[in-house]
Amino acid sequence: MESQAGYINESMPYGNAAQSYLQCLFENKRKEAFEIIEAQLEAGVTIRDIYRYIFQPTQYEIGRLWQCHRISVGQEHFCTAATQSFISRLYSRWLIHTGQDRRLVAICVAVNNMRSDCVCSQMCSRWKVGIPII
User: How many CA atoms lie less than 13 Å away from 56 in the CB half-sphere?
Assistant: First the structure.
């Protein structure tokens, strides 16, 4: 498993921002991590792209590093909770108008007695802003 390539690289859109964001999380610099997100938004990056190119690949990378035993469960939980917190802080920016009466039922399942509702939360948030869920 250790040979698997990472999910973040400089050639991907916003790859440098994603790498900096992840590094801040690993250094327990939550405020600085959110400042990276804020700076991207101020530079004109859409919330959709923040999700697609920063939140999603960093969460995948966090999961990969945990699975490879390169970060602890505590680090994984901190990074995931921080990202969930940032997602919550962004809600007000995209809930200005809904325009459609849509419903979604989402379920989070525990695997090996561990539950991670961040993916479920991201799915629900993506659905609200009209990002296709695959």
Answer: 17
The tally of CA atoms less than 13 A away on the side-chain side of residue 94 is: 20
Tokens of 130: 């009209």
Main-chain dihedrals φ then ψ at residue 15, nearest 5 degrees: -60, -40
Residue with tokens 């390539």: 5
pLDDT tens for residues 72-105? 999 999 999 999 999 888 877 776 544 555 565 5
* C-beta separation of 59 from 118 below 8 A: yes
Enumerate residues 6+ apart whose C-beta is below 8 A from 48. 129, 131
Cα–Cα distance, 36 to 57 (Å, whole number): 15
